[in-house]
Design brief:
Strand content of chain A: 5-15%
CATH class of the largest domain in chain A: Mainly Alpha
Oligomer: homodimer
Number of domains of chain A: 2
Shape of chain A: globular
CATH topology of the largest domain in chain A: 2-methylcitrate dehydratase PrpD
CATH architecture of the largest domain in chain A: Orthogonal Bundle
Structural class of chain A: alpha+beta
């Protein structure tokens, strides 16, 4: 026998589905500060590079092989590749690619990776419809605003339950961005959000498998299709997000509506976006940063290190506590491997997370010397790193903000270096440089033609 | 700051993802009784007719218009129509069509509509791959076993929360059926289930909108794509269903693993399937049945009726309590409209749920006389109907099992009449009769050719 919903439902929630839709449909183009505009471009360019880097990865190849079974029409480009596929599949595959190395962007308030679900859907649609870079950036800013505000409303409860918040809010951001690009009015945008609300994607249980990067890609696809369906008259609940049985109350005990309704159009979540300097889960970054700092300050070699003791927030081990990762993918969820790599090589880019590196004897030996202790007095964004040397020294650093955090953002040069480091092996030096310049200034592009000529192997 | 998951997680759950995958991959073809085999055919034929009936409905047209933007390859047929689309889109659209009139099948233990997510995915794949009817039925039985057993494990908690269980379990059934048709081994079938586990579809909040029938269609598409991705080497968690942060523990407080592990291969959920005699939410059926019984027994006209008093389980009003529906779609979620239609016309097929009928003065007048009282001593599957006549009579019936229930199943003649009633207006009499015969005996078909020639407007 069914009973009533056990959680007390809020029947008087504000009409956020309608409010978000009106905002997305009517906010003026470039209706934000220069700082927001600049961060939107950093977001897009960083995402673009992150989608190019792993474009030949087996994860991308596997989903492309599956999509090819559908004999897709060549409507939209796959970054870093020669193939074209239909726009929905391009959104899916470019979205998967961009999160494959776990090297993309992070909205630290919610641990959402904001661009992954929004940018690929907007890019595919903009390419197909001949939209301008200005329209693309408008869609990106508004889409990310929707998903991150919904994330703010439900974090941390929703995430704690086991949902991968990037994909479970991302389909709303993607739907919003695509509705904007399609020029849908507020009523149809509301339907697009409503259709997408029935399709949250992502479980944290998938971390360490190919299905983790599927989440932003799948969300991108869902949002794009939801917007197309709404454009053609498909309907959904007008209160799909906020109703007592709407998405937010169904999948989160916390639903702080003010996070969605307050300062809309004046405060921008994309302004808080950050970019990863290390190709792994964001919660490991302070630990790696601390290891690299001590390595460089004391010119440490592996033989100098007797033990490494991390004190970290419990979330670090929840998310990245794999003690003995066997593959490159698993090692991205291992604070132990990451610190060993940082100590040995002074960095933790994608090259430090390959199957080969993970199983090197020197890595295994050093990894075994890393111990992590949970201490919830340490902030999620911090790490306390202590190294005992074989000659008896006790080295220590408390990293309060890692490089790449809001407080210590990646510089323009660092962001460009990260982009080129990913794009050049795929595209060659000349195209990689052009792809950086065009994506970093995409609002000046009259359409997506030059950008995609640079960012793919088609031309 | 994130905290640990509030619900006590079961870290020792049995390996149901692996067990279900092995079962799906290895159970022998037609490894069940004649009774199960017969019910599987009734399930398929009923679904086939339900997908043909509304094939020209605006809901189907809207999603097809959106899909046409992708310029899909003509791989698979749309029932009742002339177009062909790619197999994933065919699964989506035929799945949506089959639930558009809310006239399909019901697994009463969970209120899952089992065929909707499974049959269209299996049919599209079977058509494209040239599979036999035998293989189709095997896939259907095994796919429905997976989704209904998962449903048994989590019902009612999961449904009470607000999830539409048909779409939130259906993607697993669809993935299982497609994995079987693709001939995936147990390991890849496990990956297919894992990929699908990240993509549950459906909120009860959408009831009364086009997004309700989207849920089985969307789930069909997700399962098909998950199986294709697994076939091409895409990976997911091996414990995607049962892990502490796996799907079942994330979206339901109840997870009774024994519902999944016990009597596998000997007890069959498809044997419990039922078919709707009325084109509306299943919980209204006893009330309509009671009204029709009293109308026929006492030859009641509208003018004879002073008041109608229903005593029903609370779920009836939760799901179908719309007092003043304005459209045909809304009226399917109104026990008031449904009883008025039953009393006036002696039936509640699709023709009694049109915009026109909903707004007829005689319907509005009688609808206003219907009162529903919640009484949780009444079973969900029952209704107590009392009619006060204008000449002072007090008529009463307690319907313990409505027609179409497990206890009072639709006869073969009734099922055929329901099929023909839906298919003939679309296909004409000759093709409708052929479509019934071929779908009711589909295991004899060497491939899908004749079945789809009868069930579409292509030939």
């Amino acid at each position: 026998m069914a009973k009533n919903q056990s959680v007390a439902a809020d029947a008087h929630a504000p009409a956020i589905t309608e409010q978000l839709a009106r905002f997305v449909a009517t906010h003026p183009s470039r209706g934000w500060s220069d700082a927001v505009e600049a961060e939107a471009h950093r977001t897009f360019a960083n995402w673009f590079g992150c989608a190019i880097g792993p474009s030949a990865h087996e994860t991308v190849q596997a989903v492309l092989d599956a999509v090819q079974v559908l004999q897709p029409a060549p409507q939209a480009s796959l970054l870093g590749r020669r193939e074209k596929v239909d726009i929905a599949s391009a959104a899916l595959i470019n979205g998967i690619a961009s999160h494959t190395w776990d090297f993309d962007d992070t909205h630290l308030k919610t641990i959402i990776h904001p661009a992954g679900p929004v940018a690929p859907a907007a890019l595919a649609l903009a390419e197909h419809l001949g939209k301008s870079g200005r329209e693309l950036i408008d869609a990106l800013v508004l889409g990310i605003e929707v998903s991150c505000r919904v994330g703010n409303a439900i974090y941390p409860d929703h995430y704690d339950r086991g949902w991968h918040i990037t994909g479970t809010t991302g389909m709303l951001g993607s739907a919003a961005a695509c509705a904007r690009l399609l020029g849908l009015d507020a009523a149809r945008t509301q339907m697009a959000l409503g259709i997408a609300a029935s399709q949250p994607i992502g479980l944290r249980e998938q971390f360490g498998t190919m299905t983790k990067p599927f989440h932003p890609g799948g969300a991108a696809r869902v949002g794009l299709m939801s917007a197309l369906m709404a454009q053609h008259g498909y309907t959904a609940s007008r209160r799909a997000l906020e109703a007592p049985r709407g998405l937010l109350q169904v999948f989160s005990d916390k639903a702080d509506w003010r996070e969605i309704t307050e300062e809309v159009g004046t405060r921008w979540e994309i302004a808080l976006n950050t970019y990863k300097p290390f190709a792994c889960g964001i919660v490991i970054h302070p630990s790696i940063d601390g290891c690299v700092q001590l390595r460089n300050a004391h010119v440490l070699k592996a033989a100098d290190i007797q033990s490494v003791t991390l004190r970290v927030h419990s979330l670090v081990l929840e998310l990245t506590g794999k003690k003995t990762p066997a593959t490159g993918l698993e090692s991205k969820f291992s604070v132990y491997h990451s610190c060993a790599a940082g100590l040995l090589y002074g960095q933790a880019g994608e090259h430090e997370y390959t199957d080969e590196v993970v199983n090197r004897p020197e890595v295994l030996a050093l990894r075994a010397k890393v111990e992590a202790i949970v201490d919830d007095r340490i902030d999620e964004a911090a790490a306390d790193v202590r190294i005992r040397t074989t000659d008896g020294r006790d080295l220590h650093v408390l990293v309060e903000h890692a490089i790449g955090s809001t407080e210590l953002p990646m510089s323009e040069a660092q962001l460009r270096a990260k982009f080129i480091g990913q794009a050049e092996p795929v595209l060659g030096a000349e195209k990689a440089a052009a792809a950086w310049a065009l994506s970093r200034g995409v609002a000046e592009c009259p359409d997506m033609h030059a950008l995609l000529a640079a960012g793919t192997l088609l031309a």
